[in-house]
Each structure stands twice: as structure tokens, then as C-alpha cells.
Amino acid sequence: MTNIVNGTISPAMDSQTPNPWQDYRPQVIFANPGDVIIQPPGSWHEVYTPCETVVMGGHIISYETLHLMEASRQLDVMRGQYFTNSDHSSIDQTLEHMVTALPSLLKRTFFRKPIAALCSMVLHPERYRPQGQKKRPKKPTPSVVELAERIEKFIYISEDSDDFLSWGNNWMDPGTSFQFEEKFWDTVP
């Protein structure tokens, strides 16, 4: 799982590791009417609107950024109820659907860290419940559990390598690419 040091998401770091955000400086983005701003999961942001405005927000969940989403959910757990200012009440079901959709995406290229994060969030939903959340995590269906476990084995994940964000030099990097082999899906129930 992701480690959080001094409030900063930091894979496999101890208290002696420098803050990876220390060199970041705020940036200003001006949006005009009709503009859409898309930012990765876990991006810290502040919105200022100098005039009366209607603004809509939402979540885009993609196979390429699930490792960032996992880190954000860990931040929710560590910092209290909905540090990321959102109730993700239907996320478990969405993630289960993403696992079950994988066999239909045979020709697609994936990345190890996001798929590892997907499997972790599906197989261990209790790890991602913010403090104070009353709703108990629903256990995933047995067929989804079986599929997620098979995927973990396929991309070489074991219980002792659960800190997948530390794979490589940059925790935001999605890791090495791979494709599921056609024969992998031949044995899926």
C-alpha cells in the first residue's frame, strides 16, 4: 500500500525522505465559458471564480490513472473522512465493472501500476474506507475476486510487493506496459 509521509503521498518512503511536492509551485489556469479542465486523480487544487458562475465537477476513472486514484483513496483514509472532498459511495461497483471489462479489451495496452491498484482496490475494499464512514465495504463477487487474483498473478503481484507505487523511480509514472495474452482469457470463467 501507499505510504503517506507528512501528509504527502510517498511510496516506500520513510520520515527521512524529502517531500516530493517541495519543488512544485502553484499555477493559475484561466477557464473561459465552455472550457473543460481535466486533472489527474489526487491533484490538489483550489477554485476561485471572480464572478457568478455555474461550475460542475466529476470524476473520470481511467485504466491509466488508477494508481493515482489508489493513492488519493489512501489519503482519504489517513487524513479523515473525505479529505479529497468527495463521497465515493459507488466506486467499489465501478471498479468491479472495470475488472470484468478487461477481457473485452484484449488488444489494449495497459500499465502495471494502475492495474495493480485496480486489483488492490477490488480485492481489499476495507483498506480504502475513510475514517468515520458508516457504510461497511461490500465484499466483491467471487467471480470478480477470482479474476482480480488471476490478473495479479499475471502481472507478478504478490502480497509482499503490495507497495506497487514504489515500482520505478516516479510514483506517478504508470510503470511498464503490457498486454494480456489471448490465452489468458481462454480460461476465465
What does this structure look like?
- Helix content is 29%, strand content 4%.
- It contains five helices and four strands, in the order ββααβααβα.
- It has a two-stranded antiparallel sheet with strand order 1-2.
- α1 (66-79) packs across α3, α2 crosses α3 (112-123) and α3 (112-123) runs antiparallel to α4 (142-154).
- The radius of gyration is 18 Å and the shape is globular.
- Residues 1-18 have low confidence and may be disordered.
Short description:
It contains 5 helices and 4 strands, in the order E-E-H-H-E-H-H-E-H. The model is unreliable at 1-18 (pLDDT under 50).
Q: Which features does this protein show?
A:
189 residues, mainly alpha, two-stranded antiparallel sheet, two-stranded antiparallel ribbon, 5 helices, 4% strand
Mean pLDDT: 76
Q: Give a short account of the largest sheet.
A: 2 strands, antiparallel
Shape: globular
How many β-strand stretches? 4
Q: Report the span from N to C terminus.
A: 29 Å
Tally of individual helices: 5
What letter string, H or E per element, gives the SSE order? Answer: EEHHEHHEH
Physical arrangement of strands within the biggest beta sheet:
1-2
Structural class: mainly alpha
Strand content: under 5%
Percentage of helical residues?
Answer: 25-40%
* Rounded radius of gyration (Å): 18 Å
Low-pLDDT parts are: 1-18
